[in-house]
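FW: tagging you since you asked about this chain on Friday. Here's the raw sequence from the shared folder, copied in full. Didn't touch anything.
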Amino acid sequence: MHSHSPSVIPFGLVGVKMQAMFHNAAFLAAGVPVFDISEKFGATDMLVSDPAKGVALAEALGGKDIALMRAHGAVACGPTLQTAVFRAVYTEVSVRRSACTS
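HL: got it, structure written out here
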């Protein structure tokens, strides 16, 4: 699942660790890698538009449930579409809660 969450995007840019702010976002505690497409492919349109870019994103994701796409958005994974959507939604909710505690 891919999103362009305005609350999540900054975490891929500023080097601040994303944290689980409540139990529904506990999957974030495993870590959230950042995929910077420019590191391997140079200046692009930031789209994962071919198999090589897809492989690079998958490698950055590793075994994590969420990966940030620097200056672009995020991807959420899971064994089902419902799980991936759950993780995308609760990543957003957790980030919004973290803004309230700062």
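FW: The mean pLDDT is 92.
HL: agreed, and DSSP finds four helices and four strands in the chain.
FW: great, closing this out.
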